[in-house]
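Researcher: Please translate sequence to structure tokens.
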Amino acid sequence: MAARFPQSTTSLGWRIKPAYSSKILAIYWPATADSVHRLYSADTSTTIITRSPSGASINGDGLLTGNVTGAGGSYFSDSQAGGLGTTENGDYTLIASFWGDLFNGVGDVWAMGCAAPMDGFLNRQSLKSASFTWDFVRSGNSLGSNNAGGGDDVLGWMVIGIRQVPSDGTARFRAWANGAEITGLRSSTAPSSSATVGDASNALRFGGSATGTGNTRAWPECWIVATDLSVADMDAITADPSIVVEVVSGDTTPPILTSATGTGGLGVCSGSVSTDEGNGTLRAVATASATQPTVAQIKNGQDHTGAAALRVVSQSVTATGTQTIASGAITGGAGTRWLHYLHTDSAGNDSNRISSASFEVTAQATSLVVTVPDAAGLTGYSAAVLSTSTPTTGSTVIRTATGLTFNGSGQVTIDITGLGIPIGARRWVTLTNSNGDPAQTPAPKQASGPVAAS
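Model: Translation complete:
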């Protein structure tokens, strides 16, 4: 068994990979017996945090060995003003990785949670072991237990995780072990705690290793706290947690975006933004809200609620300065809209998010409904739509239609989708029957009543 995390007793130039940095709030792994490396989502090097001497040790594979069960100083804790970025009734995931086997001699090993003393985890979302199994505890009750592949005299990785996603249509709480969901451990009951994870009153606490009689042991490798990890993320991370970290490249400076603009038009929008780096990818999403989507949501083409954005743009950046988003179609009809921008450079550094001021999009008409007196039921007509409201010099035919039949009200509908005609605009229409006789409408089609472009 080789170490899966980088080993050092001092800070390392590592980071959480960009693919996970908007989801994983913090990851910890052993540095010495009584210190761990910590990475927050925006860090480009680890911070060493310590605990009171525990009497444990660390082996060559970076595992904490020796008995550090119990409460108090034998556990690590971490907190910051305002918390780590989630709450116990929101998107909240805990993952812990251990090596060893599980037998009755292990007793309780409190792996990870957000309460003090450690046995308070029974009433808070947490991970712990008890005798032969691991317990997956949601706030207010336990989902149940699973051995995560561990057993008497069976040494191996035991990577466990509990995920809470209030919007999950399958179950609010779900549990994972070693790369797969434990489908029997699910619950949609709302939690009893809404505490802020990792604030001054609710420090995140983690640790716990144990040696029992014989070769019974549970030695930790790492601990992760996150928000909404997808099912695929949970499968991958609980198979090997080390996939979420990487060595920092030489470029650790994110681009800086300024001067965001947005302009609306007839079913279209355009915009621009300025960047100080000339590489990577610029993304923009148009939404119906001034609320900025998260980095992950912009990358996924979503608005701040997770719904599909009204327009999604992704384009290469080859020079610094103003980047132009060309005019393009926007869905959602007429209304007030915003453009939200993100620039990811070639080293994977994400810029600040920046939004344009609001702009207005007007809706395009999709049809002309033409009424001809006494034409009810007539068939075999064709239509020509001019670019102007009167047949003047320079007018051009912008749409033709054939095989038209008047309905019982003497109306025929001509499709004008994509022509960029505003709702209510006038266009001259000439109707001709199959014999070539014109049935020209008595006046240009007006922008109101049954003949309005709509």
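Researcher: Any highlights?
Model: The helical segments are 18-21, 231-239, 295-299.
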